[in-house]
Amino acid sequence: MASRLNPYLSFDGTARQAMEFYQEVFGGTLALNTYGDFGQADTPLADKIMHGMLETPSGFTLMAADAHPDMPNTVGTNYSISLSGDDDTELRGYWEKLSADGTVSVPLDKQMWGDVFGMCTDRFGVPWMVNIAAAAQG
């Protein structure tokens, strides 16, 4: 297998809902494992997500977990997830779903560099950037 880089998000108890939401946005196969699945069935963490992974038809891989009480939750503090490409319909569809019930900081619109770009934070506090490349001049 070739090396790859994929985001791993940390949530404070909402990893299941967030990952199910991202599956609705991007499609694909979602695998969720709880702390209970791995020996912590008799704890308050039993139903929380120890590891989740979404693999999409577009080749995206997104991973997440509910932060263990002994580990800091860093969601939304120093990153954004960027989606970019030239498939206007696909990227606008992602934008509509991600920005619904979230906060739009930069509306999806044509920018000075010629692309359509927007920034939003989804309802789970995850920041997203969407860039739709301008059609090549030929």
Q: Which descriptors would you attach to this protein?
A:
PhnB-like, 35% strand, alpha/beta, single chain, four-stranded mixed beta sheet, VOC family protein, 2 domains, Signal recognition particle alu RNA binding heterodimer, srp9/1, 138 residues
Question: What is the compact description of this entry?
Answer:
With 138 residues, the chain is of the alpha/beta class. 17% of the residues lie in helices and 35% in strands.
Number of E-type strands = 8
Multimeric organization:
single chain
Radius of gyration: 17 Å
Unreliable residue runs = none
Strand order of the largest sheet: 1-4-3-2
Total number of helical segments? 2
Give the number of domains. 2
**Structural class by SSE content:** alpha/beta
Organism: Streptomyces aquilus
InterPro entries: Glyas_Bleomycin-R_OHBP_Dase, Glyas_Fos-R_dOase_dom, PhnB-like
Domain Glyoxalase/fosfomycin resistance/dioxygenase: 5-130
Protein name: VOC family protein
Q: How is this structure best described in words?
A:
Helix 1 packs antiparallel against helix 2. The protein has 2 domains: 8-66; 81-132, Signal recognition particle alu RNA binding heterodimer, srp9/1 (2-Layer Sandwich), CATH 3.30.720.110. It is an alpha/beta fold. It is built from 2 helices and 8 strands; from the N terminus they run E-H-E-E-E-E-H-E-E-E. 17% of the residues lie in helices and 35% in strands. It has a 4-stranded mixed β-sheet, covered by helices on one side. It has a 4-stranded mixed β-sheet with strand order 5-8-7-6, with helices on one face.
